[in-house]
Amino acid sequence: MVRHDRNSARLEGGIIFIVQSGDQSYEAITSLTKEVEKLSRGLKEVKILVDHKGVGKIDIGARKAAFNVARHLPYDKMAFYGTSPYMTGLINLLARSVGKQHSIYFAKSLREAQQWLK
Questions:
Q1: Percent of the chain that is helix, strand, coil (3-state, to 5)
Q2: CB within 8 A of 59, min separation 6: which ones?
Q3: What is the pLDDT averaged over residues 47-62?
Q4: What is the number of other CB atoms lying within 10 angstroms of the CB of residue 94?
């Protein structure tokens, strides 16, 4: 498991599990993205599970980094849980802007997110 600020990423049963916690900056997002790219190497299908329960403030740099992630991070499916309504709207907007709206899912629980990724 690798931690960036209070974010972390690990490979668990073929799924990349990300925990985002605390305030998010450009540096925090880009550092976490690099780790996800490393973890995804060699995976047949890239499935990502994101825990957003502890996310704090998101500065403009983090939003710019998130746009780059939406455009360039190769993944097949990405499920989020613990996401605020604001973040849900922002992520949906980013996903639609790059044509990936059908590969993301917002779950009410960890279990629901895991089921969708199967």
A1: 45, 35, 20
A2: 23, 24, 25, 26
A3: 93
A4: 19
